[in-house]
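Q: Structure for this?
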Amino acid sequence: MSKLKLLLCLLGIIFSVNTYAQNDAEVLKKIYKNALTNGKSYDWLNHLSNQIGGRLSGSLNAEKAVNYTKEELDKLGLDKVWLQPVMVPKWVRGFKEHAFIESEKGKTTTVNICALGGSVATAALGLKANVVEVKNFEELETLGKENIEGKIVFYNRPMQADLIDTFEAYGGCVNQRYKGAIEASKYGAAGVIVRSMNLRLDDFPHTGSMTYGDIPVTDRIPSAAISTNDAELLSTMLKLDKSIKFYFKQSCKQLKDVLSYNVIGQITGSEFPNEYMIVGGHLDSWDLGDGSHDDGAGVVQSMDVLRLLKESGITPKRSIRVVLFMNEENGLRGGKKYAEVAKQKGENHVFALESDAGGFTPRGFSFDCNDASFNQVLSWQPLFKPYLIHYFEKGHSGADVGPLKTETNVLAGLRPDSQRYFDHHHASNDTFDAVNKRELELGAATMTALVYLFDKYGVNPIINEKQIKK
Amino acid sequence: MSKLKLLLCLLGIIFSVNTYAQNDAEVLKKIYKNALTNGKSYDWLNHLSNQIGGRLSGSLNAEKAVNYTKEELDKLGLDKVWLQPVMVPKWVRGFKEHAFIESEKGKTTTVNICALGGSVATAALGLKANVVEVKNFEELETLGKENIEGKIVFYNRPMQADLIDTFEAYGGCVNQRYKGAIEASKYGAAGVIVRSMNLRLDDFPHTGSMTYGDIPVTDRIPSAAISTNDAELLSTMLKLDKSIKFYFKQSCKQLKDVLSYNVIGQITGSEFPNEYMIVGGHLDSWDLGDGSHDDGAGVVQSMDVLRLLKESGITPKRSIRVVLFMNEENGLRGGKKYAEVAKQKGENHVFALESDAGGFTPRGFSFDCNDASFNQVLSWQPLFKPYLIHYFEKGHSGADVGPLKTETNVLAGLRPDSQRYFDHHHASNDTFDAVNKRELELGAATMTALVYLFDKYGVNPIINEKQIKK
């Protein structure tokens, strides 16, 4: 932006009508105080994590989580709480995976792996083959069928450590996990091992979804993630001796789709009941840990938004819904179903906020919206400053709310501190003890504050379109 | 600030000469990249925490830490590395403390306590007495000698949970720990139990320094901290029955002062070798944990600042020193000694930066400096934005650098995210596993960036005094 443009923009802000009232600072203070001294999110998360546990779509635990969260929402005195049916995929891990590196006949080193979500099993006795290490799909092409056929492809491109936003580092690697099997299959690979999406060197394998595209069921190759420590080990051993073999055994399988539910609660708007604002996270999780950060945190924070609005004496003008989406991890069926039903009913969703980046200290939000709405948000920044909320950028909102996108509405994602997130993501150490109560509560308060402001001032009010237009 | 003033200020910023160069963004990028991909701080901390451990002043471990950090600084190829002698107090904990609540004769509940640093022991058989709970010193006065004499005073004012900055919450409570014994002694109390300075409810007692002022040694009463869970328990039991007794036994004692050292390393300035800029943390820690956050993190980050400057190809104009202070926790002798020697030698310390708030994700700095220097810092904010460094406020710098304050110099404190800090502070869970490698490294990079900018542009350059004056 040129200096003149910047000046005009600043003048616009300074001499425009204030876009928030003195009283808003008091309301935010009340919200944060309630969240930090009387929050419910941590207790709810304790139950979800420690009494229920991992909540993979279609599992008994997922069903328990649906029932538990519905019961808890029922207690909040909302105007309406209901379950929205949705058919979800059911994938089961089977027995604990087993793997080792065989440097010579009878000389093996056990390594930590886990099947990727959606993968097929190995043969009952497991798969043992030579290994070819690559960093990307281009290397596969260079190597060609003659060097890959019958071997296990080992994808070992690490997350880029010098990226400050760890989600960006994740985005730069995750195609190995998601599409690795499809690409390796083209060259006749027998199986796939992927370096875990983890910036830290440790022993936890991290699962996550993968796809076979339109590969016939009989031709699908088993795929697993290996811990970062063991990826380093395997890579080093391969450098010393290309003839070493890798063995793994897993019994996972895809079953028939089963019935599950999105859990929804609503405070009906006092002035514009047909304008919907939603806040949500996903109720399902992977099965290795208890899904505390991904996305138990988002679930309980979203539930607490409605409680905090009520307890802060706020009567929303618009209808505010909490939506606990089912099956974000391996299908996004809940998010798609919610948008589909909303469209069928002609519900006008003006705003949707998702929390699905962990229960860490909130830094702000990223917004998928037009300039008018984004400028409106920027005008609220001073209100958030006392809470050290400083990150307001355009960008990705969230997977579950994505299908609700229109030209005029606002989609947003809570952006917590991301440094520790991938230490736990999809791994057995995504557990309750890794969540800090205050950090979780600050997230709930920050979400509530944004919902409060958008409800009060509306999305795209005229003032912003006219006065703060770029 | 009025709108007109704000406008003038903004105009000043917009049309002033740029206060940093394009090239600075590249230098910062290099610094952060090196810290995140090639940082040394985490390995150093691993050694300090896991090979040495808690480093209470005067202990063998403190001596080991002096030797280890000097050796490591020697390896960095600095211009000079040396030890600065300083006499430090030596307090020893003795055997593990024991405590219980006795609700009736023979019916006891064990609770978690630890002696406060500097406390005297109880009698060899321990101290058992009735308990009087208070929230502050005013309540002591109201109760008076008749209600306090011979009893144990139980200070139970919790940290205020709705304060966003947990250090502010700490500041609002810590007088109970530091001066609790002096105040309780005035009314003839037999001992003092203080609720741990911890926002979380858990079982860890948190130690920390306390003073007896000029109370004669023979009249000093034993003082201990109790875990927050057990403070809640004790308080509840007291509400049910005021006649319950509290027992504790501790064998701590203050020995004679012993010789120790500040560890100092220097890169001599190429243009202004007699202008000193220092960066530091404190090498001593409490004895319960291994002092990873308090302040192993600050130590290794400060060491890494000099390494990062060198490895980024920066030739400082001014002399940059890393100072690892001894005895911050219970005496501040190192900080005082360093300032005393600097004064004797007439060394002009233009800048001092301390990291002593944990190894968590850095958010920015607080500054103890004049307006000209502060405006200079504010002009650099855009350089820090890619690293999510947003907090630049006037305020406290750090205990160890405090004695260096002059009218014109800049003292600064790194401000990491504070939410988890007091979960670990001075407790047995201040351990290496609570430190995240990336968060630690981001702190080191952020400190290096500030040192780089102040070295390049100097403290209080004319441009800022003239053009961005308020």
